[in-house]
């Protein structure tokens, strides 16, 4: 039983791989922020392209 406790304690104290998980979480948050920002800007970008397109059509 003491051996099982030592193995569990060793697993709880093992920090290898922790940096990789932190970097993955940060990358995920940055990706989520980019998606939210692009979703918010998509309407403005679309209206700008429509405005330019209509100006070019009216100029001809």
UniProtKB/TrEMBL annotation:
Membrane-spanning intervals of the chain: 20-41
Entry keywords, A to Z: Membrane, Transmembrane, Transmembrane helix
Pfam families xrefs: Flp_Fap (PF04964)
InterPro entries linked: Flp_Fap
Protein name: Flp/Fap pilin component
Species, as recorded: Granulicella tundricola (strain ATCC BAA-1859 / DSM 23138 / MP5ACTX9)
């Amino acid at each position: 039983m003491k051996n099982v406790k030592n193995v569990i304690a060793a697993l709880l104290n093992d920090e290898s791989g922790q940096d990789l998980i932190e970097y993955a979480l940060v990358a995920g948050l940055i990706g989520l922020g980019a998606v939210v920002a692009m979703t918010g800007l998509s309407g403005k970008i679309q209206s700008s392209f429509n405005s330019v397109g209509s100006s070019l059509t009216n100029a001809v």
